[in-house]
Design a protein that fits this description.
Elements lengths: L40 E7 L8 E6 H8 L20 E3 L1 E3 L10 E11 L2 E11 L6 E11 L6 H11 L3 E5 L10 E11 L4 H11 L11 H5 L5 E2 L11 E4 L8 H4 L9 H15 L9 E2 L2 E2 L7 H7 L8 E3 L2 E6 L16 E5 L6 E4 L9 H9 L3
Antiparallel strand pairs: 1-2, 1-3, 3-10, 4-5, 5-9, 6-7, 8-9, 8-11, 12-13, 14-15, 15-16, 16-17
């Protein structure tokens, strides 16, 4: 059963992937908006709860989207999302090809900048996530979110956005309290940002809007994840929800310039892992040479990574054609480390003839992990 409060735009023509050159916006003359950057028309997606993978596309103007976001929502009966909060309807800033599930690899473009000010920071507990198969400590630290010393208020963010002259809508979120305010802000974009450029686009937007001063309160992993869900306005005490809106211009992001900017900085522990592996390569050490079958090196080009995961009890989806090979969505072997410990097909395996298979998980804490990590998980470290 679908939620009647959400838009139903079934039957829309299937969109094409956002093109950085076609979608670039010239602030001097406003030309060249791209195939799905019709001035004033936005594309995004709505989901009925946290476990809903197939969204309902929205295609419309700012006024129509504001109308949806102004409403107050309640959890679906039975908590199909897992918890009351996760059973709320949610917005996703991206749009997808018809029939494609929500996921970073399936994002065609992004039309919204969604800023979550949860006013928390991850703090290491001193413990490390265990290897799911051996129980030995990994190099991935466990963290817990703690409240920051100087929380960012919705009022000061709203004031800055009004000074910046952009169109937006904001509300306090499900777990917000007077003692620990949490808010969500949606800024409307003038044109689609390709998914591959989203992390850099988000960093540019935060700086351009003068919000760097509030980075301490931003949930950056959520901001950088183009497939992240943003639950619509709701609360155990609906009367406590605070709201604000701003009229102004749609934010125009210079996409061509983004392709020459530096990539966002890794977390310190991620940077340490990457640096260690770079040092190994500099010393001429090759991790894959340690794996052998009957004394001979493993032929990784011939390795069926999907079958390997299946043999180890990991759920795998149906393989689909992708470029010259196949793409398969799979459950992440380290799903217990995801936010709220939510399992799901958050990872993808790509097989291309003549090359090694690749693995990637969409969870922010796993973004540096790949084939090597999966092989070490499955076969151990020689």
């Amino acid at each position: 059963m679908t939620d009647p409060r959400l838009p139903d735009h079934k039957g829309q023509a299937e969109p094409e992937a956002a093109n950085p050159r076609q979608c670039s916006h010239d602030t001097q003359n406003g030309e060249d908006h791209g195939p799905h950057s019709t001035p004033g028309i936005l594309r995004c997606s709505f989901f009925e709860h946290a476990k809903d993978r197939m969204g309902r596309p929205f295609v419309g103007d700012v006024a129509a989207l504001r109308g949806i976001l102004r409403k107050t929502y309640t959890p679906r009966p039975g908590n199909p999302g897992g918890t009351p909060k996760q059973s709320m309807p949610a917005l996703n800033a991206a749009f997808y090809r018809a029939g494609a599930p929500r996921g970073v690899d399936n994002v065609l473009g992004v039309f919204l900048l969604i800023l979550d000010f949860d006013n928390s920071r991850p703090e290491p507990t001193g413990e490390f996530w265990p290897n799911p198969r051996t129980g030995e400590p990994s190099n991935r630290p466990k963290t817990v979110k703690v409240r920051i010393d100087e929380p960012v208020t919705m009022a000061e963010v709203v004031a800055q956005l009004r000074c910046a002259g952009v169109a937006f809508i904001a509300w306090t979120t499900w777990s917000s309290t007077p003692e620990h305010e949490k808010s969500r802000v949606v800024v409307f974009l003038a044109h689609a940002v390709p998914g591959v450029l989203w992390e850099r686009a988000a960093a540019w937007a935060v700086a351009h809007l003068g919000l760097d001063q509030f980075r301490r309160g931003l949930d950056l992993p959520v901001l950088n994840n183009a497939a992240a869900l943003a639950f619509l306005a709701g609360s155990p005490d609906p009367e406590s929800i605070q709201r604000a809106e701003g009229e102004g211009d749609l934010l125009s992001i210079p996409l061509l310039d983004l392709q020459t900017t530096a990539a966002p900085v890794l977390e310190p522990w991620e940077a340490a892992v990457v640096a260690e592996r770079q040092a190994e390569r500099a010393r001429g050490e090759k991790w894959f040479q340690a794996y052998r079958v009957n004394g001979r090196p493993v032929d990784f080009q011939a390795l069926d990574l999907v079958a390997l995961l299946d043999r180890h009890g990991v759920k795998v989806g149906r393989s689909r054609a992708f470029k010259d090979g196949t793409k398969t969505r799979v459950w992440c072997p380290w799903a217990s480390e995801h936010s709220n410990h939510r399992d799901g097909d958050d990872a993808v395996v790509i097989h291309t003839p003549g090359t090694w298979p690749s693995f990637r998980c969409e969870h922010s804490g796993h973004r540096f992990m790949g084939l090597r990590d999966l092989i070490e998980w499955a076969w151990g470290t020689p």
